[in-house]
Amino acid sequence: VGNIYMLCRGKKGKTAQERLNVIFQEDLYEQIRTTNYLALKKVIPIIGDVLEPNLGMSDDDVDTILKNVNIFIHSAATIRFDEHLKLALKLNVGAVVQMVELARKTKNLESFVHVSTAYSNCDRTNIEEICYDMGTKDPLKLLELTEWLDDDTMANMTKTLVGDRPNTYCLTKALAESYLFKHATDLPLAIFRPSIIGASWKEPFSGWIDNYNGPSGIFVAIGKGVLRILEGDIHKVADIIPIDYCVNMIMCIAWYTRVIKPKVQTPLIYHCTSGEKKPFTWLEIGQIVLDIFQNKMPYNQVFRRPNVNFTQNKFELLYWKIVSHYIPAYIADSIFIMLGKKTRMLYVYDKIHKASETFTFFITKEWRVGTISYLFSLFPPSLSLSLTILLLTFDFIQWTNSNGNMLYNELCQTDKEMFDFNVNNVNWNEYYPAYLSGMLTRFMNKNRYP
After folding, report:
1. Angle, to 10 degrees, between the axis of helix 151-162 and the axis of helix 168-183?
2. 309: which strand partners?
3. Residue 12 exposure: Cα atoms within 13 Å on the Cβ side
4. Per-residue pLDDT tens for 69-83?
5. Average pLDDT over the chain, rounded to an integer
6. What is the Cα Rg of the chain in Å?
7. CA 20/CA 23 separation, integer angstroms
8. Interval 183-204: pLDDT, tens
């Protein structure tokens, strides 16, 4: 590797280089700082912004990219599930359009890897490693609307455009894939679709995490004794994939895309999921979470003793929200008022409810690979419709992952060990305690759980 050029912008009074320097001082990079510090010098920040024309880059930086870059990995996106449609389109589709235009001008392009999501087509029951037609939802036309429609008009269109998908994130990721297959198949293109990304499993150490996104925020709320009821099915499989497995697979995809470039006409899509190979339910996760937060490594200054239950019954959900959330919140805020302090618990619960509701779709359904295909093979075609209806009743959604399996088998043994993304090698009973310990270390400044 010659250099790694990273598009980034200044933030909170820090320049792009200053932000990068701060990042490299984190424990994530401790090993490489110790063993090969000069390697960090290869990471060069390119000042830019994906919302700006020409990605906000200077002419000199554009020239540097065009002359020196061989591999593009595009992962910039908004991952907020409730993002306003206009901003989601600009970030998740508009940035892709600009990145493709830049890559097309590059002199020696070998791979263009786009990071999407396994939930881009979660409105379907059988999700294959292909790009699905978006019908009348043309990504470029929708992107054009963002330039002249106001926010309120775009918001009013959201429900219709989202359709059976749960949010604007999944919609815009699907639109980005559609754009790539319509306008970028002349590039050495590959699309990476991970499921829910969690903490690291092995690299650089077990349990590294740096945000509250996805299940992490839910785990923290449970540990603080604030979140005690969730809408969901505890018996559903949680499809969480470690972040280091995602990184390893992206590296392998970038390599393999270059290798097969002369041999394929249609870009390959790779699913990176865990539920079909190494199923682990929300019940099993919940038991580990409560054991850690109640007994082994509790948070300081909790609101109540950690406990959580799941329900799919709307009336039961409302009842427990009132009893376990709102009544304690009103009591706590009343005490704050009497003490002359600012109330906060009702505000906290409003945020928690909003956040947990965006995650409901993913804990009331489960995704399996191969299950449905196998069941269909056991029945004659005349019974296929009845079987489809039966499976829909149980909220099964099928992913295929043949490309991921093929890619892993293409690796030599040394590369399989260095760039491991075989989820069969993950021990969930060790992974989730490390995950929770990583959150405590990162956000609460406590010693790691051994």
Report:
1. 80
2. 229
3. 3
4. 999 999 999 888 889
5. 88
6. 23
7. 5
8. 999 999 999 999 999 999 999 8
